[in-house]
Specification:
This protein has helices at residues 2-13, 19-42, 73-79, 81-92, and strands at residues 53-55, 67-69. By secondary structure, it is mostly helical. The protein has one domain (2-92). Strands 1-2 form a two-stranded antiparallel sheet. Helix 2 (19-42) runs antiparallel to helix 3 (73-79).
Length: 94
């Protein structure tokens, strides 16, 4: 199930960074995170320690934060077109 949600996320990120596309991508990411959390619980794995975070190590100043918690990523996608473009490059590259 998580694999199909990931594919839906990739499809949502292939669109131009309009307001509607960013909202759709944010919703797709929320569904993907929820499905991966369900899978983790079904496997009996416990999350201990750190919180997953997406970090950019670029030295250039970008119009988005350099570290975003994974659970906060959907809101950042919906709010910031530059962050949407960054995830578009990362997640849709083959």
């Amino acid at each position: 199930m998580a694999n199909t949600e990931y594919e839906k996320l990739q499809e949502a990120l292939k669109k131009a960074p309009t307001e509607e596309a960013r909202q759709a991508a944010a919703e797709a990411l929320r569904r993907y995170l929820a499905s991966s959390e369900e899978r983790r619980k079904s496997l009996g794995a416990k999350r201990t320690g750190s919180t997953p975070t997406i970090v950019s190590l670029q030295k250039l100043v970008k119009p988005y934060p350099t570290a975003v918690k994974l659970v906060d990523t959907p809101e950042e996608i919906a709010r910031n077109p530059e962050y949407y473009k960054l995830l578009q490059k990362v997640l849709t590259t083959k």
